[in-house]
Amino acid sequence: ALISSLLSTNGLFGLDYGSYIWRGSGLHTQLWAMFFLPLALAEIYRVIFQKNKFFLAVLFSAIVFLSNVVYGYILLLSTVLFLLLASKKEIVPILKRAALLLFLLALVASYFWLPFLLDKNYLNRSVWEAAYKYDSFGAKKILSDLFTGQIFDYGRIPSLTILFFLSLIVIVVLKRYRQAKCRFLLIFTFFWLLLYFGRPTWDGIFSILPFSQDLHLHRLIGAFHLGAIMIIGVGLSLAWQYLKKYPLKILTAAGFIFLAILAPSLIERAKFYQQNSQWKIESQKAIFSQEKEISEIKKTLKDLLPSRVYVGLPADFGDGPAYKIGSVPLYSLLPQLDIESFGYAFFALPLSTDVRLHFDNGKLEQYNLFNIRYILLHKTWTAPPFYFKMKELENYVLYEVPTTGYFDLVDVPAVFYGKKNDFYSPNSKWLFSSLPQLKQHPILEIGKEPKETFNLPTIPFSKVDEKVLLDLAPTKDATERGGILNERMETNQYWTQFFVNHDCYLMLKTNYHPGWQVSLDYQKVEPVMLAPGFIGIKVTPGVHQALFSYQPSNWRFPLLLFGIFILLILFYDYSIKHWLEGSKVVKLKNKLKQKVAFLKFLN
Length: 603
What we know:
single chain; alpha+beta; 3 domains; 20 helices; 49% helix
């Protein structure tokens, strides 16, 4: 625990506390995974080699897997590593117990991983994320960082790095690698160091490993950190066992040497955590000082017609000092106020995420496309001519831009299709073209071939370019498609009443997913995905009403109940065993008491 709190990296998302605290990355779910991963591995070892009951191993493993997919992946591959400790006689029964354990884990967590697997074609692999996140850094850089102290001691004297290599020397010199547990610890640590090298070193291997294509391999540093921390712990324990036989003077000198090695880390981390507290307090004071204005912003927006609010993106003015309260950007504050905003992509899995980050705040049609009706600008900023002032606050001014709301009527000129990894290019080009202004939204199909052509031109994602988009623009002004008469939104559903003058599509300006259910005039209809990743249905002339509602797969909740049922069965099996053991202990104690009492009586 002491060593793990002293880790320091340059934002590598490892087990250093910078991954979790306020001034760091705030990886709350990884914190749960970090805590339960060593517990899960310990229980898996007991199940496989000591034939313990499965309950705790499955429970802790499920918590790890549901907290963080990368750490779940680490857990699964680490379970396979345990097989290396088995003798030839043990391998078959151990393999059976490991397989049964993983099968039970798959059942308990099935409500999560099965939909995740089935929806993989609609999960975004962001082009905005640096390549190293998916590929890691390669052996040369990682080994260089390891030996120069960057993996354990970024920005300071490499105290923990020294302890790590000293601990390895102690383990080797004392030949503790001959012990199974120590040997596994070494295998675990260096296996994950090798995998942490990533695709630059092991591209062929990662093409074989299942589900590794969209995995953030740079986060495998967490597994290496865990192994390294335990190696340091073993090394220090062995050193203590060796030194405690010596006189107090030698023990005192060893203690001073140990503190001298750790001192730079202790001092640097104390300053780091103190700065974290200072920044938090400063931001809390800033938010408190503007609490009245924040409350007024919330009340004003809640009383208005529901639409998205824009206070800047990180790529434009969203991170400017005028749009921060303390260290907190307004685009981070609005979601906390339960206000739907168009800002930072906190949830980046929808396919349209990367495209929408190209939003151009100088184009009126893009405000309508994303239903950005309200804008907060600092009072010192000059608004574009199409902004209409609504309300002046203490530091900010609220503006309005006309939009059609969450719904619009659009035309469909073609069908674009291709792999999900090619989704970004045609849709970003579409956004830059004249088609959004003309309300021309191609249907988007994920797959090698479109499931349906709709009697429209079909164009692969890879073939979409400026010329293709120019050719799709209508040669004459489109007649009025119709209009939105009314709309209403509730949790996970949107309702609208509208009129249509000619065949077109009704588009809901939110992310497409197969879980969306749509009814048109109380009749269920099949939705399609429209550029840049929204939901649409075909409509005919007349007055209609439509209801769009999101429903998760109807078998997901039964899977959750089934997983809980499996855990309850395992718990029953576990508790019965411990109750029986407890009963035996109680009986044994009673017998001993009776014998002691009898001996006293004889004396």
